Amino acid sequence: MNLRRIRVVAYKEWREIVRDRLFFTLAFVVPSLLMLLFGYGLSLDVEHIPLAIVDYDQSVSSREYAHQFSDSRYFAFQAYSQRESELEKLVMDNSIRAVIIIPPQFGARLKAGQPADVQTWIDGTFPFRALTAKGYVSAINAAANIEQLSAHLSALSGIPQATLRAAFQPVKVEIRYLYNQEVKSIWSIAPKLIMVILMLSPPFLTALGVVREKESGAIYNVYSSTLSRGEYLVGKLLPYVAISVVNACLLTAFALFLFGAPFKGNLLFFLLATILYVVCTTGIGLLVSVMVNTQVAAMVGTAIVTVVPAVLYSGMIIPIPSLSAVASVIAHALPGMYYAEIAIGSFLKGVGFAALWPDMLILVLYSFGLFSAGFLAFHKRPAN
């Protein structure tokens, strides 16, 4: 390969990018905009669930029980009511997501040592949030039961309530969260967003950059020139790889300084892995571009092979072990999953080459394989 020719092709492509304002915006503005939109809009934390309470008893015990829920940070208390019918409309228009219904004679039954049935409504339109809310309700109710029972027995026996409370919990579970001690979903999501955006932007840029030459007829200048296939393709890819690496640095800065995600790993190793991943994703765009002849077809084809896999088959939302057997095979056949492992390992776990070299090796193989496939598919003397 002639480096001078590669440099000329790369410079020409860069000039084309700078001249086209829409393409320039797509290259430099859209990735950062996507990071902001997804970062602020995508959260898996279930807190401040709108809550209402129906108290048919109006006793001291029922109010104390209700305060267990209204004072919790997991629920955002909205209203008290004495009739369920008043809250049905609020539940239907999504103003309320959970309702605690305390029955009549609640306090009297507890004093008599009898069980009292408390009903809970939970909006099930979002199953994940509904199941999490159910867990919150069960945990608060369990704590209230222990408090109520220990207070009742302490009054009867004279044993200190703290002693009875400890006796009711002979085994206490102490949970220690590793790597993400504050259990913030954005700390896990932000590194994976880098993976998703770098799976979306570089392939689109590369595919459109090559195909628009086909549409304009400029590709025939390449066909008739002395440029080799390798020189042309490397020269075309270099600007997009460079742009994507710059975008990756910006996305990493957003993750660190805007969303507060920690970075515990080796920055140089992460940068090298990012460059390899960008080469992979630009290779995907190259492969799509040599197979289609219009920008619309390039956009559709690129979207099919990047958008869905980046979100569903990379561990972004659903952990890989939780996928079905077929979905797991698809995930392992795509580079996004391996870069996501490197991103999470670098940001949260603080691991480097010693632990992540298999993922790095697979990215190297993908980079070589995708470029080779694009090289073999591109012909300077097309059949048509």
Automatic annotation (TrEMBL):
GO molecular function: ABC-type transporter activity
Main localization (coarse): membrane
Transmembrane segment boundaries: 22-42, 193-211, 237-260, 267-290, 296-313, 360-378
Tagged with keyword NADP: no
ABC transmembrane type-2 domain sequence ranges: 153-381
A cellular component term, taken from the record's GO annotations: plasma membrane
Bilayer topology: Multi-pass membrane protein
Location(s), subcellular: Cell membrane
Record has Phosphoprotein as a keyword: no
Gene3D superfamilies: abc type-2 transporter like domain
Record keywords: Cell membrane, Membrane, Transmembrane, Transmembrane helix, Transport
Pfam families with a match to the protein in the record: ABC2_membrane_3
InterPro entries, per database record: ABC-2_transporter_component (IPR051449), ABC2_TM (IPR013525), ABC2_TM_bact-type (IPR047817)
Family from the record: Belongs to the ABC-2 integral membrane protein family.
Protein name (record): ABC transporter permease
Species name: Undibacterium rugosum
